[in-house]
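Researcher: Here's a chain I'd like modeled. Treat it as a single chain, no partners, no ligands.
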Amino acid sequence: MARAPLVPREPAPAALRRPAGNARVAVASLAFVLLCVVSLGGSAHSTAPDPAASASPAPAPNAAAPWTQAPTPVPNGLFGMTLNSSTGAMPTFRIDTVRLWDSRTRWSNIQPRRGEFDWSILDRLVEGANRAGLPVLFTMGGTPGWASPNGPHTAYDDGSRTSPPDDPADWKAFVSAVAERYRGRIGAYELWVMGNDPHYFSGSPETLVEMTRSAKAVLDAVDPDATVVCPSMGRLWDAEGMRGLERFSELRGYDSCDVAGVKLHQRTASDPPEQLLGLVDEIDRAFHRGGSHPKLWNTGTTYDIPLQQPLQDPAASANAVRFFLVGLYARYQRMYFYNWGGSKIPIVMQPDGQPPTQAALYVEELRRWLHGSRIHSCGNGVPAGLPVGVWQCRFDRDGAELVVVWHATGSARVPAPQDTTTVRHLDGTVTAVGTDRTVEVTTLPVLLGSAP
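Model: Modeled as a single isolated chain. C-alpha cells:
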C-alpha cells in the first residue's frame, strides 16, 4: 500500500507539544506541578514575558522529550559559522569551525573553464582558517556553465548551473583537484549544497547518489582522513523536501558518507529556536523510514533567509545562543550558524572588518561555559519537572555540576539546584543565588553552578 507523503507537524498554537503518551497522565503531571508551585509560595510561577521575547506573538516551540545518558563530552566542533566573505578574514570571537559557502568558492568560481583553476579565494580562506586553528568544511555546488551548458541557471551571478555536469568525469576531476591541493588543510567536504532543492540541484536523486559515491571514492583515495558529508538537505518544513531526504536514504546514498548534512532552521528567524526540535523528530523519522541512521551536522539555513526581517537585541542574541543549545538538545555534532561576515540576514554576528555584535559575544560566552564539559541530560517543561516554557541541560566539569537554563518565550522563577551558589550571565557578570533559593529565568540562558 502506498505511503502517504510526510507532512511535518505544525507547532502547537498555545502550548508545548508533549511526547506521545496517555493524555490523562500528562494532565495529572501538570496538576501535580501546579500544586507544588502553590505550596512553594510562587517560587516557580511564570511572570510576564521579558524584553528578550519577540515583540509579536511567536509560535510556541515544540516540546521535546527529556533525555539522560552517561556523561559524554560536548562535541568539540559544535560552534560553527558559515563564512559569507572572500577576504580570508576570520571571526575575532572564539568558535570551533568554519564552513565555506556564499564565499565565492562555488565550483563555477574555482573552475571557470575545463582544465583551468582559480584558487586565489579558496587559498586565502583556507590559509586564514588554518592560521586561526579553525577546521574547514568545504561545500561543493554550482556546476560551471561549460560543464552543463543547457542546464538551468542558479540564482548566482557567475553563470553556474543547478544541473549535474553532462560528463561525470568532470565532477570527479574537480573533486580530485580540490582534495589534492588541500589535503590535510581542509578537514571535511560537503558534497553538494541543498541536494533536494531545485534552487541548487535540479538533477535526479539517483544522479546525486552516484555523484556522492564517486566523490567518496576520490576522497578516500586522495585524502582518507577527510570527513565526507553527504549532500545537505533543506526545505525540511515541506513534505516535498522531506521526501527528497527520505529518497536519498532509500537509495543508500548515506552509505557513502561519514555524516549527513541537514538544514535545520526555524520557520522564520524570529521564532523560538526550540521550534527546531519538532523538525528534528520529523527528520529522524524520515531517516528511519529510509533505513539510515547517520551522524548529523546542521550545515545551514533556508534559501529565503536574506528576505526575512532583522532581529534586534536582546531577541537576536537570545536566538543565536539558543540555536547552539538546541543543537545539543538534539544531539547534533555540529551546528553551523548562517552566517559570519555578512549583514543582510536577520541575526548579524560580525560583518567582515567590524567588531563582533552582542549576539556573537554571547555565543562566545556560551562556548566558554561548555568547553571541556560533559553533557548528561536535557529536559523541558512538565515532563522534566520544570515550569512550562523552561528548558535546561545539565553538564559536569572537573567534578562540578553545571546547569544551563532558559525560557523559550518569557520568564519564570525556578528553584535553584541544591549545590548552586552562583548565576552566570552571558554578559560575563556573576550574581549570587538569593536567600529564597530561586532564580529568575528568561530567554537569555544562564549558567547555574557553584563558586569557582
